[in-house]
Write a structure and sequence with these properties.
single chain, 2 strands, mainly alpha, about 200 residues, two-stranded antiparallel ribbon
Length: about 200
């Protein structure tokens, strides 16, 4: 579980990044260390970014995500269908970001369990206010940071297929491949499946 992770706002600089994750996993497969991957990505602009600053901001997050994926999950991201890659990427984001995992578990999961397919501004507001009340560090975050995180969370839901329409907040249930479900359950990570509404 992600309990040992502190709340973090790093997602403001690193959203879905599935393409980037695939690039990092390819380099990992070649036997490069995390430090070598970081150097190569930045020096050769592997992500094809316009600005080096964006590269430097997103690389650590992508490497963290790659590290939490076992060989089987890495293989599925690299050679499986796009929708499988999206789900595994979302799992890696939850596994490396405690606040986002709690959002998925406490907001999205509860909505799907109640067959409530609408996520509203107030849902995000209540979630962030409650968390800030529970965590001193988070209570010091600026309104700008919180607003950016709200946008990123909605974007993540959209890119992973859980959000039909960003404007209306209409949600949809994502069907997760049986093999992924079995594998995540087998490695003891069924909590992440539950957070995705399984």
């Amino acid at each position: 579980m992600t309990k040992e992770l502190e709340y973090s706002a790093t997602l403001t600089g690193a959203s879905f990044l599935l393409y980037e994750l695939k690039q990092v996993l390819k380099l990992k497969k070649q036997g490069l260390s995390d430090a070598e991957i970081k150097k190569k990505v930045i020096e050769e602009n592997i992500f094809e970014y316009k600005y080096t600053s964006s590269l430097k901001r997103s690389v650590p997050s992508v490497i963290r995500r790659a590290v939490v994926l076992d060989e089987q999950l890495q293989e599925w991201v690299l050679s499986g269908p796009l929708d499988i890659g999206k789900i595994i990427n979302l799992y890696a984001i939850m596994k490396t970001d405690r606040l986002f995992f709690e959002f998925m578990n406490e907001v999205l999961r509860e909505k799907l369990e109640a067959d409530n397919y609408l996520i509203e501004k107030k849902d995000l507001n209540v979630f962030f206010i409650t968390k800030a009340e529970q965590d001193d560090k988070m209570a010091k975050w600026t309104e700008l940071t919180i607003n950016k995180l709200k946008q990123v969370y909605m974007k993540l839901l959209y890119e992973a297929g859980f959000l039909e329409d960003k404007k209306t907040g209409e949600l949809s249930r994502v069907l997760i491949d049986e093999e992924i479900k079995r594998h995540l359950t087998y490695i003891g990570d069924s909590a992440y499946l539950k957070a995705m509404g399984e």
